[in-house]
Amino acid sequence: MSYKYKRVLIKLSGEGLANKEKSLAIDYELVNKFAKQLQIIIKNKVEVAIVVGGGNFW
Asked: Does the record bear Cell cycle in its keywords (predicted)?
């Protein structure tokens, strides 16, 4: 598979990773799905940088 970009930056919201239904700081199922998608992209020689928001750390 050919991708348009060879390098990408992914910005994730810390709040978007939360599991509000279970009052957890991190939704581990969501993070696992995201990691599996990243594996596919990285195996296809795309360089990935990830920034996770930290607005709730103060």
From this structure: no
CA distances for 17 relative to 1, 9, 25, 35, 56, angstroms: 28, 17, 7, 12, 12
**Shortest CA distance to 25 belongs to which of 16, 34, 36, 12?**
16
Helix intervals (H) in the chain: 28-43
Residue 42 phi, psi dihedral angles, 5° rounding: -65, -35
Question: Using one digit for the tens of pLDDT, what is the confidence trace for 1-34?
Answer: 778 999 999 998 877 777 777 676 788 888 899 9
- 27-58: pLDDT as tens digits: 888 889 999 999 999 999 999 999 887 665 55
Q: Quick one: which of 18, 41, 28, 3 has its CA closest to 50?
A: 41
Q: Phi first, then psi: what are they for 55, rounded to 5°?
A: -65, -20
